[in-house]
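Sample A.
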Amino acid sequence: MAIEGVNTAIPGRISLTYKYDASLKKAMPVSKKLIVVNGKAIERGTIGGMEGSDYIIILTPDEGVQKYGKIGALGLIEAKGPKITLIGIPSPHLPARHHHINRMMLFNINHKYFFKYYCCEVCLAINFKLAIAS
């Protein structure tokens, strides 16, 4: 079963895809499903994934509501296992899924020129802030 924003290609491992949310001014997971690790709900936007689970169960919204009440209303991903390790959120300047860098920008700051390579608008904004700081 494919879930948008969730990569389960490696057995026992889940990786979340993040997207910049302009209203919150931070990256947030694309998937809105609740993640539950060994019965404990994980707050959305606090992990980048997990590895080492014995098994992963994906519940539909109806199953999520039956098992966890209102918090499972968007469906959920349930992982169980004694050796689960939570993975940190990917760095915004090194997004997890960039295949190549295909853009370049010339910055002119105080008559100094900087060439910066970037792959998306988030990386461009970060590079601009780094160029100003240097």
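Sample B, a different protein:
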Amino acid sequence: MNAANRDKIMSMIAPMQLVYFATSLNQQPYVRPLTMFQVDSKYLIATGTGDAKVKQITGNPNFELCLEVKEGQSTGSLRLSGNVQLVSDLPLKRKVFQQISFIKDYWDKPEHPGFTLFHLRFRMGEYMAPGTITSQKIEF
């Protein structure tokens, strides 16, 4: 897939997007819905430092996520996989606090020890357009 098609597909992701996020630790998969968001052209997720997914990600940084893509009455999907990187960059955390409103519902400041921010770094994906049964591979 060429870069223009990849960028068109990636533009379907909302700035704040519900995704189904899968991790794996000790050969056990874990899937949960969560909100992925974009700040400074980075795809990010936030979680509590003591949350189980932090242990899973630090034990195995590989992930896969899936989201539904709708067009009229038809649905398709976008699956993306890659690895997760812990964000320690305080200026980026501050931007997240400024731009992502729900973050302040859980933490009072970017420096809060219970606030963990992760950067999702995509390696590959698969897009199934609504109304089709075949998928297109995506490489990053």
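Observation for Sample B: The longest strand covers residues 115-128.
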